[in-house]
Amino acid sequence: MDNLKYREFYKRNLPHYQPECGIFAITFRLAFSLPKRTKESLKEKKEDFERNILILKGEKLQDYKNEFERKYFESFDTFLEKYSQSPMWLSSDSIAAKVKESLHFMDNKMYELFAYCIMPNHVHMMIKPLSKNNNIVHSLANIMYSLKRFTANECNRLLERKGQFWHNESYDHFIRDDKDFEYQLHYLLDNPIKAKLIDKTKTWQHSWINNDYVNRDSDLEKTSSTSELSYYKEKKEWQRSNLFKELDLRQIKF
């Protein structure tokens, strides 16, 4: 399908920007309708953004875009954490297990998986899409289509239901550099704590990190909070930085 082919930029309800060799923080949620008030609030924020970018230039414009994206996403993510009227199918261990299984199955096939966190009504993950045999990178659209199609069928079967399981859209953020990578990783790990599902001394059973890029003071089974995260101080610390050497960030307009 043409809409699943790789394109650097495309737009559905949300804009999607995928530079080759990019690393991405992606959030996708279950299918449910947002309250009217929430939709109106999000629409107003977008309209303010469109007005403001017309009067800003240069670094001020870029700083504003980056800050707006961060605040816009985090405000919506906070809404998801608190919204009790949505389905909470992912809080079931068997449903979460199916999603985990699929995330790991596609690792090293369509993408390199760095981390994920499965919340009751949405999922966070960090990935780097890989190239196919023809050296064309797997598109985020195709990755999400494959992931959602398989898990929707499997989870609906377990739930003994029919109908849409995932929302059609996903939010993806292009990770700009090592500092941004660290920020996104901490945000992902702290999500269950922020949502008050666990406290800082507990483990969120549906979080995972690729230990090739992160070192822990203890195993994942013991903790998933950033209070226990420590990055390597020598060679492995910069293993993450090397992920960005394939990108000339000076040539990319954010």
Question: Tell me about the biggest sheet?
Answer: 5 strands, antiparallel
**CATH superfamily heading of the domain at 21-32 and 87-251:** Transposase IS200-like
Query: Can you tell me the CATH topology of the domain at 21-32 and 87-251?
Result: Alpha-Beta Plaits
Using only C-alpha atoms, the radius of gyration works out to: 18 Å
- Percent of residues in helices: 25-40%
Low-confidence stretches: 216-240, 246-254
Q: Based on DSSP secondary structure assignment, what is the total number of beta strands?
A: 9
Structural class: alpha+beta
Strand content: 15-25%
Mean pLDDT: 82
What is the C-level CATH assignment of the domain at 21-32 and 87-251?
Alpha Beta
N-end to C-end Cα span = 28 Å
- Second CATH tier, the architecture of the domain at 21-32 and 87-251: 2-Layer Sandwich
Features:
254 residues, alpha+beta, Alpha-Beta Plaits, five-stranded antiparallel sheet, 5 helices, globular
List the helices and strands and how they pair.
Layout: E1 9-11, E2 15-17, E3 24-30, H1 36-52, H2 58-82, H3 93-105, E4 111-118, E5 122-129, H4 140-159, E6 166-174, H5 178-194, E7 207-209, E8 215-216, E9 229-230
Antiparallel strand pairs: 1-2, 3-5, 3-6, 4-5, 4-7, 8-9
Task: Describe the structure in your own words.
The relative contact order is 0.16. The chain has 254 residues and is of the alpha+beta class. 36% of the residues lie in helices and 18% in strands. The protein has a domain at 21-32 and 87-251: Transposase IS200-like (Alpha-Beta Plaits, 2-Layer Sandwich). Helix 3 runs antiparallel to helix 4 (140-159). Mean pLDDT is 82; it is low at 216-240 and 246-254. The chain contains five helices and nine strands, in the order βββαααββαβαβββ.
